[in-house]
TrEMBL record:
SUPFAM superfamilies: Bacterial luciferase-like (SSF51679)
rRNA-binding keyword on record: no
Protein name as annotated: TIGR03621 family F420-dependent LLM class oxidoreductase
Domain Luciferase-like: 15-246
Classification via Pfam families: Bac_luciferase
Assigned keywords, A-Z: Flavoprotein, FMN, Monooxygenase, Oxidoreductase
Length: 303
């Protein structure tokens, strides 16, 4: 991990009215220079991640396809491997597999699965990662006796979070570490407040550097933009929209790594500064903002 790793950008898929709308997003993302299409894993109005990515594989030839993040507690490891390895047959070597412990209480309620404390969920996540990666890399699992077929191509693995335990797990197992604000409330309607501040991200990056050891140079840091907008007056936008939503003063919310607002040159300057400060080079844009961020992608990708 260095401050000069080249920029790349992903699109996080949202909800779509029909297949045609999803196809347009996928094809445009590939055509306009985005590096990846990522699909979340929530039991709400959004589409299922693995079938969505299988569809996207048929419409693309270069775009990396991934999840951000699959909730490990909602899937058995050997079954998850089978689905992912089958997906790889449609997009060989293009998978970026994000695995997480699950954080949203509503997903567990809708699935009828108890939501255990974070430490328990993270321990099970580590077990899932161990089994899936052993099947992926070795073709068999010594723990369960599962068979790693069909044989997949190498993939990139993504894990992350906002707390030290989850980030330590990510550093041990992932190629890409995704930094977020800590979501301990298990709800979407609670302002992130100081958890989203630049100072808290300084701490998270320090933890990664301390825990990574010899792996530090191998890691790519990713950040999902919770709020992103190309606007003429970033200060006004922060005062009217962002500060109330995040529970932070306008200047602080504009400095948060999960927020990106301003005109295109201002946004590019902010991203360069954040790469220097945090080492984050891989930025994920919500699908609703993907088109307006295309000039940013064109200016910064690969630089």
């Amino acid at each position: 991990m260095t401050a000069h790793r080249p920029f790349r950008f992903g699109v996080l898929a949202g909800a779509f009215p029909d297949l045609a709308a999803f196809r347009r997003l996928v094809r445009r993302a590939e055509e306009t220079g985005y590096s990846s299409l990522l699909v979340p894993d929530h039991l709400d109005h959004r589409w299922g991640p693995l079938v969505s990515l299988a569809l996207a594989a048929g419409w693309t030839s270069r775009l990396t396809l991934g999840t951000l993040m699959l909730a490990a507690d909602l899937r058995r490891p050997a079954v998850l491997f089978k689905e992912l390895a089958t997906l790889d047959q449609a997009a060989p070597g293009r998978l970026e597999i994000g695995l997480g412990a699950g954080w949203l209480a509503a997903d567990f309620e809708r699935a009828g699965v108890p939501m255990d404390p974070p430490a328990t969920r993270i321990a099970r996540l580590e077990e899932t990662v161990h089994i899936v990666r052993e099947l992926w890399d070795k073709g068999a699992c010594s723990v369960t006796g599962a068979i790693g077929q069909p044989r997949p191509a190498p993939a990139r693995w993504v894990m992350g979070g906002g707390g030290r335990r989850m980030l330590r797990t990510a550093v041990r197992h992932a190629d890409i570490v995704s930094l977020t604000a800590q979501l301990s409330s298990a709800r979407k309607d609670v302002p992130l407040g100081a958890n989203a501040s630049a100072e808290r991200f300084d701490t998270r990056v320090r933890w990664i550097r301390e825990d990574a050891g010899d792996r530090l140079a191998e890691l790519e840091l990713q950040c999902l933009l919770t709020a992103a907008a190309v606007v003429r007056d970033s200060r006004d936008h922060a005062e009217r929209v962002l500060a109330p939503a995040f529970g932070l003063p306008p200047a602080e919310v504009l400095d948060s790594p999960v927020v990106l607002a301003g005109e295109v040159p201002e946004i590019c300057d902010r991203l360069r500064a954040r790469r220097e400060r945090f080492g984050i080079s891989y930025w994920v844009v919500p699908a609703a903002r993907a088109e307006e961020f295309e000039p940013v992608v064109a200016r910064l990708s690969g630089t």
